[in-house]
Amino acid sequence: MASEDVKRSETAVSTIVNLAEEAKLAREGVVKAPSLAVLSVCKSLVAGGVAGGVSRTAVAPLERMKILLQVQNPHNIKYSGTVQGLKYIWRSEGFRGLFKGNGTNCARIVPNSAVKFFSYEQASKGILWMYRDKTGNEDAQLTPLLRLGAGACAGIIAMSATYPMDMVRGRITVQTESSPYQYRGMFHALSTVLREEGPRALYKGWLPSVIGVVPYVGLNFAVYESLKDWLIKSRPFGLVQDTDLSVTTRLACGAAAGTVGQTVAYPLDVIRRRMQMVGWSHAASVVAGEGRSKAPLEYTGMVDAFRKTVRHEGFGALYKGLVPNSVKVVPSIAIAFVTYEMVKDILGVEIRISD
User: Terminus of the chain with fewer CB atoms < 10 Å: N or C?
Assistant: First the structure.
């Protein structure tokens, strides 16, 4: 969901914050070589893109399993759980089936990161101007909460800019070899949806994605800061030395915060995915069903999708796919962090990762 694109960690937000500050210093002449600052930004985007691609690919089977569980027809159950579902995909579609839709997911990373970085810089300047105007202090700086707001704005803008890619990724992910019509790839899917359903169809499910940013980012920030403060004050198991958290401990705090944020905002992600399937005339059988159970998804909007899902499938349907989604959080963050650091070192990028 939006969480994927706000997609989703403290390290990423801190990196963008630091890059924006460095770019600002470069423009003001504090840094002697502005071209190096621009080069650093470009290299950081490359490092972030590679790290995001590697981490997404590593957990792609769990991501596909999550989406299949979210949208499958309740009267035609093919996937009863994470392990059973992965085995079923392996038997029916082979190894490549586990990674269906991952190419489109990875293709979103670079443009999403670029838009997010630029949007964050512009939002930061706007928020800082309003903050200084309100307080009357020309030397005031952004507080952590204001930076969080700027990050949320950047996440929403970046998510909106690349949302059509996420929409077709969802459809590519759920189609199987037996689907009546096959999307041959991202561009073919985009052109097909645009031709058959119109431009508005590319933004189906956009509203719950935007709404999901608020609880995800807010809880992510609150839980992370609370855990960090508690560890520094109580120092359990010797995890804290000299009022500072180790990289491993910060990763654990980030994973815990991400899990809480995703769990609370998860029903919005389920609704988003289901709304993306509306109007798909050649929907995969896992969505439309087979035989007597065959029926297309019909929702008039987000509220209607919530109401029908709970009425026909119960409240628990809003958390379908939560298990594989939660399982992939820790390895995804860890792999992204390690890969980012490795690529950064190879490219010779000097970037601070602050708390």
Answer: C
Sign for the CA dihedral angle at 194, 200, 206, 208 comes to negative
pLDDT per position as a tens digit, 55-85: 889 999 999 999 999 998 888 788 989 999 9
Contact 286, 234 (CB under 8 A): no
- CA 259 to CA 254: how far, in whole Å? 8
Run of H or E including 244: strand 244-245
Dihedral sign of CA atoms 174, 179, 180, 185 in order: positive
| Amino acid identity, position 190 | L
Gyration radius of the chain's alpha carbons? 21
- The Cα–Cα gap between 308 and 94 comes to 34
The alpha carbon torsion through 206, 211, 213, 217 (nearest 10 deg) reads -170
245 by DSSP, 3-state: which?
strand
pLDDT band at residue 1, thresholds of 50, 70 and 90? low
Residue 325, C-beta contacts closer than 8 angstroms, at least 6 positions apart: 62, 66, 262, 266
Residue 227 near residue 236 (C-beta atoms within 8 A): no
Backbone angles phi, psi at 240, to 5 degrees: -115, 130
CA 115 to chain centroid, in Å, comes to 14
End-to-end CA distance of the chain: 25
Helix, strand, or coil (residue 241): strand
Q: What is the mean pLDDT of the chain?
A: 80
**Residues 355/245, Cβ–Cβ less than 8 Å:** yes
Q: Which two tokens stand for residue 341?
A: 């650091």
> Rounded to an integer, what is the distance from CA 143 to the centroid of its chain?
24
Cβ atoms of 87 and 31 within 8 Å: the answer is no
For residue 2, the model assigns a pLDDT of 46
